[in-house]
Amino acid sequence: MIGIPREVVNEPGVEGTMNHAPATEKDEALALVNNDVAMEIDPVVEKRVLRKIDLFFMPAMLVGYGLVYYDKAILGSASLFGMTTDLHLSVTDKSTHPPTTDTSRLSWATSIFYFGMLAGLYPMSLILQRFNTRHVLGPLVLVWAVVCAATAGVSTWQGLFIQRFFLGFVESVIPTGFILTVSSYYTQDEQALRHSWWFSGTGVFTIIGGALNYGFGQITSGTLKRWQYIYLLAGALTFIFGLWCLFIPNSPVSAWFLTADERVVAVERLRKGQTGVRCQKIKMSQVRECLTDIKFYLIAIMMASAYTINGAVSGFGPLIVSTFGYDTLDSILFQFPLGAVCVIFIPLCGYIASRVPNTRIIMLLACCLPVITGCALVWKSTWGYHPVAPVVGYSLTGFFGPVVSLIITLGASNVAGATKKAIMAATVFVAYTVGNIIGPQLVNSKTKDRHYPELWTGLIICYCITIVSSTALYIALKIENRRRDQLGLDESQRDKMAFSDLTDGENMYFRYVL
Fold it and tell me: Which superkingdom, per the lineage (predicted)?
C-alpha cells in the first residue's frame, strides 16, 4: 500500500564513468553531488539550465510523440483514400437488402497495433532503465521509421496485421522513454507542464496531419495510391526524429549540452522532490512494491478507461464524420477542431498544474465532463445532412487529451525509485493500449443508422469509471500525505535521502502531488 515504510540499508556509492555507468545500487547523481548536504543554487543559473534542458528536449519530444499519434491516426484517413478497398479491410454483403458492410478487419487493424505495443512496453521500459538511453532509443526509432514506411508496400489485410503488430512493438519505447526522461530532468512541480508539452503533439499532429492528408487527397495521378504516399512521408519524418534520438544524454549527469557547473545545478535542483535522477540497476524489491501499491491500479484504471475513446476516434474518426453527409476531404478537415482542443487545453492544464499546487486531479475531473457531453451530443443529436450538433460534439471529445495528459503526470510525479518509475511508466501505457484495443471494437458498422449506440454508451461508461477512480486516487494520496506530515521526521535528514534510489514507499520525506 501507499507509504508503507521499509527498512533501508546503506548501500555502496557510485563508481565508474557516466557514459558507461555500471548498474550500481545508488543514483548516478552521486558522482556530481554530495549525498549528505544540499548545495546552494544560484536562481539565475538554475533558470538558464532549465531553459537549455527545455530547448533540447521539448520541441523534439513534441514532434516525436506527434509522429507516434500521426502514424496511428492516418489509418483512418488512409481508409478514405482507398486503403480499405485495396486491402479488403471492409467486406460488403450484397445478399442482404440493403447491402451491409462489415468493417471488423479495419477494427482489428487498429487494435492489433496496440497488441504489439502491449508486448513491448515492460521489456522496453526495463531495457531503457538498464542501458544507455541513446543506445536504445535511437536505433529503435530508426527501425520504427522503416516499419512505418513499409506500410506502403503491404498488399493484403493479413500483411497489414503483421506490419501493425511490429509497428506497435517498436513504438512502445517512445512513451515510456519520454516519461522517464522528464522524471530525470525536471522537478515534481515542473513535470506537469513538460508532460503536457510533449503530449500536446497529439493535437499538433492532428492538425498538421489533417492538412498533409488533405494535400495528399488532391493527388489524382502517380504510380502510387494516395494512402501509400502518406505512409512514406510518415516514415521519412520519423527517420529524422530518430537521428535526434541518437544524441540524447543518459541523464543530467552526462548532459553534453550543459557545462560542467550547469550539470551540477541540473542534478542538485532535483534533490527537494526526492524522486532521484537515474539508477541503472533493476531492483526486484521495487517491482514487488509496485504490486502492493494502490496507485498503480487506480492510475491504470484511469488510463484504460480514459483512452478508450482514442482507439475509436483515431481509427474511425474521419469515417464517423463522413456519415454526417460530408465528403472525404471535408471529413479530414473536421479533425482540425478536435486537434485544436488538444493543442490549447493540454498545455493550459499543464501550466495551471505547475503554478497552482494540487490541482491535477480537479482539472482531470473537470475535463471529463466535456468528453461525456460530446459523446452524448453525437449520439442523440439529429445527423441529417451537414449537421452542426454532432460535429460540435465530436470536437468536444478532444478534451480526452488533457485528461490523459494529467493521468500521465500523476503517474510520473507520484513514484520514486528508478525501477519503480520504469514499471509505472510501462503500466500507464499498458493501460493506454488496453483502452485503444477496446475502443475500435465498440464501433459496430451495422448500427450506423442508429448513430453507433454501442460506441457512445461505452465511452460514457468509461469516463464515469475515470471519474470514480480519479476521486479514489485523490482521497488515497491526500490521506497518505496527511499521515506523513504527522510523523514528525527530522528535516535535517531530508537531503541525505534524495539520491539513495529509494521508492516513494520507502522514503517518508516524499510527498504526493494531487
Answer: Eukaryota
Phi-psi map region of 358: left, alpha, beta (phi>0 left; psi -120 to 50 alpha)? left
Mean pLDDT for the stretch of residues 224-231: 83
The answer for residues whose C-beta is within 8 angstroms of residue 122's C-beta and 6 or more apart is 423, 426, 430
Q: Is the pLDDT of residue 125 over 70?
A: yes
Are 346 and 65 in contact by the 8 Å Cβ rule? The answer is no
Residue 324 CB partners (closer than 8 Å, separation 6+): 383, 386, 387, 390, 391
Average confidence (pLDDT) over 140-166: 90
Handedness of CA 249, 251, 255, 260 (dihedral sign): negative
Q: Where are the alpha helices (DSSP H) in 323-449?
A: 328-333, 335-355, 360-380, 389-396, 400-413, 418-441
With a CB cutoff of 8 Å and minimum separation 6, the contacts of 443 are 103, 107, 312, 315, 316, 320, 452, 454, 455
CB atoms within 10 A of CB 100: 14
Could you tell me if 93 and 277 are in contact, meaning their C-beta atoms sit under 8 angstroms apart? no
Using an 8 Å Cβ cutoff, are 452 and 320 in contact?
Answer: yes
Measured from the Cβ of residue 65, the count of other Cβ atoms closer than 10 Å reads 22
Residue 441 has pLDDT above 80, yes or no: no
Report the C-alpha gap between 441 and 439 in whole angstroms: 5
Cα–Cα distance measured from residue 16 to residue 24, given in angstroms and rounded to the nearest whole number: 9
Alpha-carbon distance 106 to 320, whole Å?
13
Q: At 381, list the grid cell.
A: 443529436
* Domains of the chain and any CATH numbers: 28-497 (1.20.1250.20)
Return the pLDDT at 372.
Answer: 93
Between CA 75 and CA 439 the distance in angstroms is: 15
Nearest in space to 262 (alpha carbons), one of 57, 28, 20, 47 = 47
